[in-house]
Amino acid sequence: TFFLILSLPSQYKFRDLTIEELKNVSKTYPNFTFSMNTYTFKDGSQKDLLNFSGTVPVKYGNSYNIPICLWILDSHPFAPPICFLKPTANMGIAMGKHVDARGRIYLPYLQNWSHPKSTLIGLIKEMIAKFEEELPLYSLSSCDAARQSELLSYIAKITEGETDMKSRSETGGRNEGCFNKITVVGAGDLGIACVLAVAAKDVADKVVLLDLSEGAAKGGTMDLEIFAVPNVEISKDFSTSADSKVVVLTVNSLGNAQTYLNVIQSNVDLFRGIIPAVSHYSQNAVLLVASHPVEVMTFVSWKLSSFPKSRVIGVGANLDSERFQYMLTNLLKAEVLAKDAWIVGEQGEDKVPSWTSCNVAANQTGAMAACSSREKVANRAMEVLKGKGQRSWSVGLSVADLADSIVKDKRKVHSVSTLAKGCCNINSEVFLSLPCVLGASGVIEIVRLEEDPVVQEKLQSSAGSIHDLQQQLKL
């Protein structure tokens, strides 16, 4: 057992941390046996993973030894293990709050997994505590034991890589890995708005909603299940996000932090348990961040994922830019100006209008008059823009718009949060909204802004304050 632990394959990204944890498990529960086997995920993909099996002691009137099997993902300890009961032929599975019909174990500890607070020993202790409240197995009569063989066969096939889904794909069914899949992380109002908007625009073949909240489905998530929106799957399992083209992050911490810095730090702590897991399952995805504050959380996502800067994008000022262009065209009848008009910089009060070209006049006098007129029109549009809030459904539509450009490789220009270092004399690693060409690989190109001293000063000021804030965070 110790030899197997110490020879953990190189695919495990955080070998030293994982080995240390497994040693502690082996010392505390010496009956556990370790092995490498093939695990088949829900989408049919397979991976060789370390797993350990054994029994945990449970007191429920009498004393029982409950057999379990834990699969350790190669992004451990930043992603929780996958846990199953491992019943023998004379044991039946008692479905309940924490166990489904096929023996998969669901616990609050797994849902709230966050390194370094969460550990395998802590998980097993909670498992024992929950099993002592509700025993997950019961003894079968001899005739019931015969019917149990089908279930045990299914559980065995998971390790052998022969699920029904894989069989269907081999006989001509569509391979889900070829789908345009989008995952939305977070089942609050914004997450559900994103799911509905993406589904309405028919952006993807499948949309996965990762619900990381505690307890059973409730509110909008329950309504999505009741009314069965086509091609939408709701899950608490990170593995269902595998091979997504775009992963949308909408989660925000609901803690009781008193200061703005503490609120952001709570979000950072939340992301530490999410970003490594989703980036592990979708290593070629574009991360699209809608969590607040979007500039900081996009930076955090970039750092935690180790993805190239082009594939980590914040929703930024896309919604404001689309509204700005619409107002110029439809309300102020300045269509010529609208095509080059953008809202850039930082979300909120510090956003600023800018332009990507100025072909308004051939001579200097005409250019000055045209720019003065343009400034007046822009100021009027900005005044109207101030009265427009950003509700969940409007941000959801903006997210769907961005996802559409990425998944369909449209090469369309959007004002999104991207790494601004090197632009407008910004020397720090901060994310600000700039007009970018978006395609399947994320940001393909940053479109050059007109040289406007007011805009450059505003961007540099935003970059400075964001950088100062980031320096105070614990990543």
UniProtKB/TrEMBL annotation:
Record domain UEV: where: 1-141
Catalyzed reaction equations: (S)-lactate + NAD(+) = pyruvate + NADH + H(+)
InterPro entries membership: L-lactate/malate_DH (IPR001557), Lactate/malate_DH_C (IPR022383), Lactate/malate_DH_N (IPR001236), Lactate_DH/Glyco_Ohase_4_C (IPR015955), NAD(P)-bd_dom_sf (IPR036291), UBQ-conjugating_enzyme/RWD (IPR016135), UEV_N (IPR008883)
Record SUPFAM superfamilies: LDH C-terminal domain-like (SSF56327), NAD(P)-binding Rossmann-fold domains (SSF51735), UBC-like (SSF54495)
Signal sequence extent: none
Biological process annotations from GO: lactate metabolic process; protein transport
MF annotations from Gene Ontology: L-lactate dehydrogenase (NAD+) activity
TM region(s), chain numbering: none
Role description: Interconverts simultaneously and stereospecifically pyruvate and lactate with concomitant interconversion of NADH and NAD(+).
Name of the protein in its database record: UEVLD enzyme
Organism for this UniProt entry: Donacobius atricapilla
